[in-house]
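Title: Comparing notes on inverse folding

I've been comparing how different people in this forum approach sequence design from structure. To keep things fair, I'm posting one structure and asking everyone to reply with a full sequence. Here's the target:
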């Protein structure tokens, strides 16, 4: 037999059991005496027997009422704890965000954004998986993370893409390279140099090759690397010209490289937030998305 009772009925019973007074219990649970009596009556009917014995002089618990009192206290404590936990998550006092992010964004823009978010929500735990752009998409798709930050995955029926900004390609050079005297560098100038680029099947590498081919140019790569930091370091010591996204310009400069915009053509990609289309974000993850949009929008205005 299934037993049905409400939290309101439990609170009414516990208040009466504690105070041994209907009058005092009414004040505690903010009910009128008739409403309190009905709550207790309905609880007893649901359980199948008397919990209280009320006389003109005293009010006492039945043996079954004594036993149920401990259970009711535990149930109310569990309920209040659960309610507080969920409320805290919705208020962003607690929770966890799992993010997959391509390394170029994870090591450059993301730390400052997370710092601002952490100041506002110090009890939110954040796990960042810095993986290549292709893996970002798969981690979101499989549900291993709630949020991905990467390039536009294109037409994907199961994913949502919220653009943050357009990212152009730039050249990373040694300080002594002759092309540093140019404010901008054309691709026609670059392809005559020793080129340093990411290894295939990097989507960045494939995009550059495709765009240049469409413009009647071929890319001949002298040095390849798996990480953009390696590309930047190679360029900074004079091995050649590194081809990197503009979003890692600060990192390139820290490695000792000089950066210049690449034009004719300008090759760019949309960077944004990837989430699953048919899965609602947790309150913490939605707060993270809002912070990303706010922070990137503010930096664009600056």
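Reply #1:
Here's my take.
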């Amino acid at each position: 037999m299934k037993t049905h009772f409400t939290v309101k009925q439990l609170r009414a019973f516990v208040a009466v059991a504690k105070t041994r007074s209907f009058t005092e219990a009414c004040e505690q649970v903010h009910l009128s005496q008739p409403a309190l009596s009905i709550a207790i009556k309905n609880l007893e009917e649901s359980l199948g027997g008397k919990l209280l014995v009320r006389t003109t002089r005293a009010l006492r618990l039945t043996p079954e009422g004594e036993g149920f009192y401990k259970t009711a206290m535990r149930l109310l404590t569990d309920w209040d704890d659960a309610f507080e936990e969920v409320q805290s998550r919705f208020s962003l006092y607690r929770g966890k965000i799992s993010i997959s992010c391509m390394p170029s964004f994870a090591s450059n823009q993301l730390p400052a954004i997370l710092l601002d978010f952490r100041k506002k929500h110090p009890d939110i735990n954040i796990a960042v998986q810095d993986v290549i752009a292709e893996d970002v998409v798969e981690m979101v798709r499989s549900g291993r993370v709630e949020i991905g930050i990467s390039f536009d995955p294109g037409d994907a029926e199961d994913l949502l893409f919220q653009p943050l900004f357009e990212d152009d390609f730039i050249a990373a050079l040694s300080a002594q390279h002759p092309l540093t005297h140019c404010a901008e560098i054309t691709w026609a100038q670059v392809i005559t140099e020793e080129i340093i680029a990411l290894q295939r099947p990097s989507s960045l590498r494939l995009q550059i090759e495709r765009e240049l081919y469409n413009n009647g140019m071929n890319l001949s790569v002298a040095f390849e690397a798996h990480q953009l930091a390696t590309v930047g370091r190679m360029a900074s010591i004079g091995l050649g010209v590194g081809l990197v996204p503009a979003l890692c310009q600060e990192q390139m400069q820290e490695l000792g490289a000089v950066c210049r915009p690449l034009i004719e053509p300008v090759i760019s990609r949309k960077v944004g937030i990837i989430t699953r289309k048919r899965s609602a974000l947790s309150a913490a993850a939605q707060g993270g998305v809002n912070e990303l949009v706010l922070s990137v929008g503010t930096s664009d205005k600056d």
